[in-house]
Amino acid sequence: MSKHDLLNSKLNVINLGLDIFFQSLRDQNVNAIQVDWSRPSTKLDKESEDILSKIL
Amino acid sequence: MHPIIVCPIICIRNFKNLFFAFLDYNSLTLNTDVCRIDTRYILRSQALFYVQIRQNFYRDSLQLLKISDKIKREPGINEAAVIMGTRTNKQILSKLGFPEDKIKQAKESDSVIAIKAQDKRSLDSVLTRLDNLLEGTDKIISGTGKSGQTLDLDSVIISMPDTNLALISVPGEYVKDISLRLIDAGIHQQIFSDHVPISDELVIKKHASDNGILILGPGSGTSIINGKGIGFSNIIRNGPVGIVAAAGTGLQEVSTLLDRSEIGVKHGLGVGGNDPKDEIGGIMTIESIKALEACKDITIIDIVSKPPSSQVKEKIINYILNNGKKNYVLTFMGTAEKINYHVKARKVMEVNTLTSSVLAVAKQLGKKTIEEIYIPSMTLRKRLEKEWQKVHKNQKYLRALLTGGTFTYEAQVILNGIPLKDIYSNVPIVGSQALPSTSKSHMNSIIDLGEEEFTEGRAHPMIDPTIRKLRLLDESMDSKVAVIMLDFVLGYGSNSDPVGAIINEIRNAKTNAERQGRYLSIVAYVCGTKRDPQNYESSVQLLKRSGVIVMPTNAFATIASATIASRGRIDLEQIYSKYVDLGGIIE
User: Fold this and answer.
1) Is the model's pLDDT at B1 over the cut of 70?
2) How much is the ipTM here?
3) How far is CA B500 from CA B130, B142, B253, B486, B488, in A?
4) Within a domain: residue B528?
5) CATH number, position B528
C-alpha cells in the first residue's frame, strides 16, 4: 500500500500542466504546488536512448 | 523586435451591395528564424478584419484562448481569435468573415491571430501590445506555488513528502515516464491528458495496482475527493455516496444531481474511459471500489460507465457480489434489464441512464422528494404541448449540439430506445448511424462538439463556445429542424458564463427561423449546482427568458426534445419506465 491514504487525508496536490486546474485548486483552498514542467526538446526513440545510455 | 516598414496599397471595390474596402499591407518578413508575420487588413461593413500568421508558434489552446479573450475585451474590438492553424480553426475563421485566401496559408504548426476591429486606431492599439501578450505565455506551463516559486518535479518529490495527489495534464506521450516516477514516490494521480497510448496506460495501472496507488485517468477530467473538485468539477455537498466513473461528464451529471437532490457525494473517482475495456480490464475500477469500500462515511457506491466489455462487466459484478459490503447502483448506460441483485441484505441495482442512477440512489436511501431533478410524465406532456403545437409539421428533426461526451452517449441511448428513426452522430452508438460529414447535420443528428475533429488546436467547447455558436446558427437556417438541444456544464474549468456566452446566438437562431415563418424550439439542460462559481440560477433564468425550455437533467432534455420533434407522438410512459424510472418514490 502507498504511504499516503488519499481518501482519508488532507489533500496535498502537485499540478503538472494546465494552470487552470492549479487555480481551481487554490480557489478551493487546497494545498497545491505548480510544477514547472516543459516539453523535452527532443524525444529520442527507445533504441537511440539505449545506445546513448551505453555510451554515456 | 525589428522595426517594420509597411507599404499600404489601397483599393476599394463594390461587391454586390456590400461596401468592401480592401487595404492590403504588403507581406512583411521579420528578421527572425522562426517567425514570419504576414498581415492584411480588410474592411467589410465598416469593420476591419486583420489576420496575422506566426509560423511554428505553438501555445496551449487554453493560453491562446486567454489571449483571445483579453483582446476581445479591448475597446473597439468586435471579435478576436488567436488559434492554431488547424483545418477546423481555419473553417471557423472563414465563417467569421476573415479572408479565406490569407487563412488557408496557415499550417497546423502556425498560430493565426485574427482580429475584427471597429477602426484602425483600435486595431493598432492592440497590435502594439500583441507581442507582449504572446510573450507572456512563452512557457508551456506557468504558475506559482504557495511560496511564489515554480518548482520542478524532482524538487517537489524530495521537498514535499506530504504530497498525496498529482494532477497531470501534459501531452500524452510524456505521461508514462512522469507517472511511473510518481508511483515509485507513492503519489496517487489524476491524469487528465488524452492520447496516452493504451499500452502505456496498462503499464502505469499495473505498476500502480502493485504499489497500492490510485490512477484516475488517463482522459479523466473530473474527480471529487473529500468534497474538493479536481479538474473539471462542480461544488458538491458532502454526502453518503461514492462514485466510480469511467465517464467524465457522467460523473459531473450524477454528482450535481445528487447535490440538487440534497443527497451529496463523499468521493467521486474518474478512472478514464479506457478502464472498462478489455485492454485494461477494469484495473482501476476495482481498485477504486476497494478504496470506497474502505471509507466508513460511504453507504452507497455508484458505478458510472458507458457499457464495459462483457468480461470486465462480469469481473466488476463478481467483485461487488463476492467482496462488497455496501449497497450499489450500476449505471452501465443502456444495458440494464431492470436487474436487482439482493445479496446478504444489501442491494445492487442496475439502471440505464444517469438520471435513473440518481433516482436509484434516492430510492435506496428512502428519499421521498426529488422534484429538483424529476418531472412526472403528465406534467411534462402538458408543459410541452404548447411548444410542439407551434412547430410546423414539416419540421421533423432534432439536432443536439452537445459539449458533454457522456451526454451525447446518453441522448443516443434514449433516442434509440424511443425509438426515434434516422439518428445520426459523429460518435454513433449501436442503433445510430455515422454522419457522412461531421460538419453538416443530417436528419436527427446528435453531435459531440468535444470530439477531436472539433477540438484539435482549440479549447474544448465547454470553454470556448465559438464552434457551437456557428453550428447553432447553421442549424437554425434548416427548415426541417423542429428542435435544437443544448447542454451547459458549469463548475471549475468551464467557461465563466457558458450560457451568457451564447445567449445572443440562441436569440438570433430563433429570429432566423421566425423570419422564415417557422418556430424553432430550443431545449437546454444546465449541469451544475447552486454553489458553482457560475451562477446556476441566473443561467437557468436567462435561458428561460430567451424562450428556451429548460429541463432538469440531460435525460429529460432528450425526452423533451424527442417529444417536440415527434409532435407528442411518443409513448412517454414506456420511455419513463426504461430511462427515468422512479421506482415508486413519488408516483
Assistant:
1) no
2) 0.79
3) 27, 29, 21, 13, 11
4) yes
5) 3.40.50.261
